[in-house]
Amino acid sequence: MGYTLVYLSAMILIPIAGLFLKSFHISWHEFIRLITDPRAIAAYRLTTLASLLSALINAVFGTLLAWILVRYEFFGKRFLDALVDFPFALPTAVGGLTIASLFSPHGWLGQFLVPLGIKGSYTPLAVVIALTFVGLPFAVRTLQPVLETLEVDVEEVAATLGSSRLRTFLQIIAPTLFPTILTGFALSFARAVGEYGSVAFVSGNYPYRTEIVPSLIVYQLEQHNYEAATAIAAVLMVVSFIILAGINWLETWTRRFNQ
Amino acid sequence: MAGSVKHKFSKRQSVSRRGAEEPPLVKWILIFIGVSFAMVFLLLPLLSVFVSAFSAGLGYFIEALTTHDSRSAISLTLLIALITVPLNVIFGLAASWAIAKFEFRGKAFLITLIDLPFAISPVVSGLVFILLFGLQGYFGQWLDDHDIKIVFAAPGMVLATLFVTFPFVARELIPIMQAGGREQEEAALTLGASPWQMIWYVTLPSIKWGLLYGVILCNARAMGEFGAVSVLSGHIRGETETMSLRVQSLYEDGGTSETAAFAIAALLALLALFTLIFKTYVEWKSARNHLIAEHSEISKHLSEPAS
Question: Which of B15, B116, B261 is opposite residue A12, by nearest beta carbon?
Fold first, then answer.
């Protein structure tokens, strides 16, 4: 048993340690130069902004979807409930391919949107759309169980005491759900930061404009710039660790908050 | 148990009560917005895959799937899943078993470690294996001397997939095993069961649905992984392309190849649909089992004072 555990740790730890060891081989000066390259900075900026925006969209619509799935009865509800997991089950390449074709100038949505000036392929907007798609299940599925266990009694008391429904929602329901919505937001953001497959199809990977950090790493690898790829990957991994720590902290806080 | 029954009753009654519901107009506006959003972001992509795949007719669809390169992509994808899923089932069982049933130092660290592949970008997951086994990597020279090819070949792609799909089974099993406790297994052992009998008759049945759930999620990811596999593949057509990678290379070819890309994509979407249906079934089944268990517990509870 102990042997298995050691083996498991090795399977995960060695590759990660390898990345950091490799980046220590690069001199400090060179490392800084590689990770502050203007093209890398542009990629950090796009990844951060697009991920934040998509996580925000998912927090809003994910909350709405979780709400209608838990509180209301309507035709096709069970189907919708199952459909929410679709982006999670679908290979990212397929997600990217379909979004690219839907929003292309001749696509189902693009033919209406492109004349309006909304270009959903090969633009930063396309990146946001793809990231929203892949992150949606995380926002809905985090909130749903909490919403299911929410006591309706409290809302009734508020209504009996003369509170309007809107006021009950804003002052009682929203504050209770807020930590969980924030966790869903963070999970969706974390997924978006690392996402590559779907974006590779829709963004066109134009340097400085639609290139996200994972695409830049792939580009550097293809150019055999292993040092640059390693340095940028180290930055991305540190950011992922920070987000993971943040999510763990949020989950602990939410659990305490919900009790 | 009695508490939870009471809770269910009060919940059912309160749903019909006024005051805790939105006005019908607000309710239907919310449903309308939610459903429209889901249509655009979830249903439309799903439909468009199949419509595009068959846009050039069934004949072309079949032709696109049976070219040499496509067949090789399909078999490589199946091969990768066939290796990684069983291995991750074993790892997942061992890890969750150890975490749930034993106390040891560094347990919290191990749990975090299991989650790590989820947190890391797939591209970075692929890159770390290049740094280990590539020519410039730590073991690269040795591997090259012994003529073992890992990077830009199938073994590397298997390793990367193993890494990114690692958490699925373990994550599903840990909470179930923790909730199960050790009493039943200890009872089995005291009654003279061998450790294997205990695992087969006591442990496995209790985690059956969770394990299945983890396996289908793990399989879906193993077959659909793109980023990590892309980095390690070397993109040799007919050799080191999985289905996901084949979708990309066909899409980049443009023209009629795009329809072929959709044909492969449709096959992968079918896998996703299968995963969803299976997942819904498992959830329904385990929820029902849970209800039955609860029910028998309740009737036991009710009959006890009488006897």
Answer: B116
